[in-house]
Amino acid sequence: MLEIEQNPKTRTIVICPVLADDKSLISPESRLNEALGLSLAINLEVVDKQIVCLKEIKPATYFSKGFIEKILPIIKENDVFLMVADTSLTPIQQRNLEKALRIKVIDRTALILEIFGERAQTNEGKLQVELAHLTYQRSRLVRSWTHLERQRGGAGFLGGPGEKQIELDKRLIDDKIVKIKKELEKVKNTRGLQRSNRKKVPYPIIALVGYTNAGKSSLFNRLAKDSVMVADQLFATLDPVLRKIKLPSGAEVIISDTVGFISNLPHELVMAFRSTLEEVLEADVIVHVRDISNQDSDFQQKDVLEVLHRLGLTNIEHKDNYIEVLNKTDLLSDDERNVLYANIKRKKKKSVCLSALNGQGCNALLALIDEKLSLNEEISSVDICVTDGKSLAYIYQYTKVLERMDADDVIRLRFKAAPKTMQKIKTLLFE
Hints:
Elements: E1 11-19, H1 28-40, E2 45-54, H2 65-77, E3 82-85, H3 91-101, E4 104-107, H4 108-119, H5 123-138, E5 151-152, E6 163-164, H6 165-200, E7 205-210, H7 216-224, E8 241-246, E9 252-257, H8 267-272, H9 274-281, E10 285-291, H10 297-310, E11 322-327, H11 334-347, E12 351-353, H12 362-374, E13 378-385, H13 389-398, E14 400-406, E15 410-417, H14 419-429
Parallel strand pairs: 1-2, 1-3, 3-4, 7-9, 7-10, 10-11, 11-12
Antiparallel strand pairs: 5-6, 8-9, 13-15, 14-15
């Protein structure tokens, strides 16, 4: 972990650097507000926040000498302990800034890692966060002070003669990384067995994805009638939660709430949380929840799709199993809602407008999920012996029975089901 005192006494200044040739679609003000939200998510006391325009990035300190001279009095006057830079700093830049400003400096990646470290609840989540931390810290050993350049002698695991302290520290971190990866592999295998067991009772999987704070957990609670933690803060949910719900057709599905995405999501976190995000890869329907009341909703949409693409779900937005949910319509004015409906109609998109807060539009979402799942369903007929109660019960529970004909010792059923359910029925009948 990054040894930040996570309490209101950690006086912090948040800096959002903007390059002169920046072509980002998101405004500097929105970036600054998001960085502020990330800082507040771990109870840092932000005493000052600034947008800093840069002509160029200085290789040694990222910021110019003029910025450092300007910010020093503010740091001293406000008794600042920590500076958060909403960018990615190299280890050298981070070290030099700490020397120049005489306070602790972290970048966007470190801040997100710190939030994840505080929020992870399950053993798997904690392991994933620790792996991401170690991967990040390994490249940052250079930021430690000169004692890391001392050489030491020793034997065994303490290192051979002449091994530098920095080399020893790297080796210790590498050993920890190997150990955690082995533990995560066991967790991954367990999760794979759980998925295999779910396939034996083939409930379709519906995965909720979206930008952090888009309202996924609120929608999850509304659909599942559950009480997953909901908070108006970034990354309120880290560990995946699964619940069974019933669709209007009567079909039962499993709905999954996943970790929220964010712009410039650290590569270390995407890789560390890959086993958790495999729930998304295995999903039958992906529901992308967007906060349509946010002025940067379009930009956030692109960030989410980029992460999904990095996971291997290329062009998912054009697939039949993708649903776009425009959440928080209750926060829009009547005029804004009318414009939104007109745009959806003009683009002929299969988007669902809803409010997870008051439930308006949720029934339309469930109906659309039903429709998406039925696209791959097949119609089939089977003859079942009247004594085969197991197969008969299974078909009635996991398929849509269209027709039934009873004979003396045989029941003929005509039904509609997903391919994987069909496969299970064939297995049952030929056991």
